[in-house]
Amino acid sequence: MATYIVLSSFTDQGIRTVKDTVKRADAVRETARKMGIETKSLYWTVGKYDVVVTFDAPDDAAMTALSLAIAGGGNVRTQTMRAAIVLRGRLRSRPSCVIVLPRGETR
């Protein structure tokens, strides 16, 4: 499984229906689960991005399918990055984002 970080910004439609954002997040979690993708974390944030989510997906194709499903709702614009994990000073995959684990912690 690969880790992906998704940065999301509300569209005008998403802002108009912001009261439904928790329901939409639950729907994304369920859609991801059905696609064999685990939602690791989901945060509503303040700043350039409104929602930040991390997923563990089997491959880029599965994550792309989920990204397209999310975009199809018209409520957010997303930027997806595949994360790399540093273990013992070596990268496990080519990063667009790097997660550094504390000494002794493994994935």
What is the topology?
Blueprint (H helix, E strand, L loop, with lengths): L1 E9 L1 H5 L4 H14 L3 E7 L6 E7 L2 H13 L3 E12 L2 E2 L5 E4 L7
Parallel strand pairs: 4-6
Antiparallel strand pairs: 1-3, 1-4, 2-3, 4-5
User: Superfamily at the CATH H level?
Assistant: Dimeric alpha+beta barrel
Q: What is the number of domains? A: 1
Distance between the termini: 10 Å
User: What is the name of the CATH topology?
Assistant: Alpha-Beta Plaits
Query: What is the CATH class name?
Result: Alpha Beta
CATH architecture: 2-Layer Sandwich
SSE order, one letter for each helix or strand: EHHEEHEEE
Oligomer: single chain
Helicity, as a percent range = 25-40%
Total beta strands: 6
Strand content: 35-45%
What's the rounded overall pLDDT mean?
Answer: 87
For the biggest sheet, the summary is: 6 strands, mixed
| Gross geometry | globular
Q: Structural class, from helix and strand content? A: alpha+beta
Question: Which regions contain 5 or more consecutive residues with pLDDT less than 50?
Answer: none
Describe, in plain words, how this protein is organized in 3D.
This protein is α+β, with helices and mostly antiparallel strands. It has one domain (2-81): Dimeric alpha+beta barrel (Alpha-Beta Plaits). The chain is 30% helix and 38% strand. The chain has helices at 12-16, 21-34, 60-72; strands at residues 2-10, 38-44, 51-57, 76-87, 90-91, 97-100. Strands 1, 2, 3, 4, 5 and 6 form a six-stranded mixed beta sheet that branches. A hairpin with a 6-residue loop joins strand 2 (38-44) and strand 3 (51-57). The radius of gyration is 15 Å and the shape is globular.
